[in-house]
Design brief:
Elements lengths: L17 E7 L2 E9 L16 H6 L1 H11 E5 L2 E2 L1 E6 L12 E9 L7 E5 L11 E7 L2 E7 L5 E3 L4 H21 L1 H11 L5 H23 L7 H21 L1 H30 L6 H30 L5 H26 L1
Parallel strand pairs: 1-8
Antiparallel strand pairs: 1-2, 2-6, 3-4, 3-7, 5-6, 7-10, 8-9
């Protein structure tokens, strides 16, 4: 099982978990990399990483802790957990705030039905997500665990595919609704005004553009440095918001084209979360399509809400002033984000 948790914004990880689980006969082995702060009780020297000696000295506490947060069972029979340090040569370089452990679950007979309950999330972070890539019975499956969707029972055929698809749809929706820069870009697009036809052109242009680059990036056909992508997203917000203030007539005619151009950059931003997950090739297409569909659903929710709110303001004398103030604020935020991401990150 490879997993990553993202309580941050727009695919920028603050607390990242990674690991790999392989189920063979009566045993499941997980190599898990997680934020050391979650097991701070075992970090005696407070250096942000658990050493082999610290793992051995706190083995009983660690086994109790992980037994409570990551439970694997064969039907109703839980696996007996043993926690071990991972050989240094088997650990991939990672942040100095993370530790890597080997979790081994044992049963008395070969596993028939694997049930997983994953609750290793940062407390109070409802938007955290954990991707699991599970190798079981010669099949590889991807699943996204969240605090709200934290259990999975592996079954054959369409059931497993349905769980995988629905979890990635949910991930796409959350990615939009917690990606404040993407949301601000969409809202800034609507501040210019216009009818339903203009709105449909803008939304279609954005959808087509980010779907293209999201697919190309997820398939490792196209890649740009993260700093460049994130800076470009911030710049797109500043530019569109500034157009709302100073080039209204020109912006109205070319807004769909501007949206398409910047949508290509936003698609690369969407792809970041999938690339960091290291999706298995056998499940990449299903995960990509499901994630993109979730992004579209989240986008529709944001655009529809903003459009209805602007419609309610249409008869108000404050409508023009409100649009200008929102655009000015978005431009300022976009400039600040651009400076942070381009020069200070």
């Amino acid at each position: 099982m490879e997993c990553c948790c993202w309580p941050g914004v727009s695919a920028r990880c603050r607390w990242k978990h990674t690991g790999q689980i392989k189920v063979e006969a009566a045993q499941a082995r997980i190599v898990l990399t997680f934020p050391t702060s979650l097991a701070i009780f075992a970090d005696d020297d407070r250096n942000g990483q658990l050493s082999a000696q610290e793992v051995r000295e706190h083995r009983a506490e660690l086994e109790t802790f992980f037994s409570q947060h990551i439970r694997l069972a064969d039907g109703a029979e839980p696996g007996a957990l043993a926690v071990e340090p991972v050989p240094t040569g088997d650990i991939k370089p990672g942040p100095g705030t993370h530790s890597t452990l080997l979790l081994v679950y044992h049963w008395f007979k070969p596993v028939q039905t694997l049930a997983i309950q994953y609750d290793l999330f940062v407390p109070g972070v409802s938007t955290a997500s954990c991707l699991a890539t599970i190798v079981y019975r010669d099949q590889v499956r991807n699943f996204v665990f969240t605090p709200q969707r934290h259990t999975l029972t592996l079954g054959p055929g369409a059931t497993a595919l349905w769980y995988q698809s629905s979890s990635f749809v949910a991930l796409g929706i959350r990615h939009i609704l917690t990606g404040y820069d993407h949301m601000l870009f969409l809202i800034s697009l609507l501040m210019l005004g216009g009818g339903l036809r203009s709105l449909l052109k803008i939304v279609t242009a954005f959808t087509v553009a980010h779907s293209v680059t999201l697919s190309l990036a997820a398939l490792n056909i196209l890649a740009l440095p993260s700093r460049l992508v994130e800076s470009g997203i911030a710049l797109s917000i500043a530019y569109v918001a500034a157009e709302n203030l100073w080039r209204r007539e020109h912006a109205t005619r070319s807004r769909w084209l501007v949206t398409f151009s910047f949508g290509l950059i936003h698609g690369l931003g969407f792809a970041t979360i999938l690339k960091e997950m290291a999706l298995s090739r056998g499940n990449l297409v299903l995960s990509l399509v499901s994630f993109n569909f979730g992004v579209e659903l989240g986008q529709i929710a944001v655009v529809a809400t903003a459009f209805l709110c602007l419609g309610a303001l249409a008869t108000s004398v404050w409508e023009s002033t409100a649009r200008r103030w929102v655009s000015a604020g978005a431009a300022a935020v976009g400039i600040v984000w651009f400076i942070q991401r381009a020069f200070l990150a």
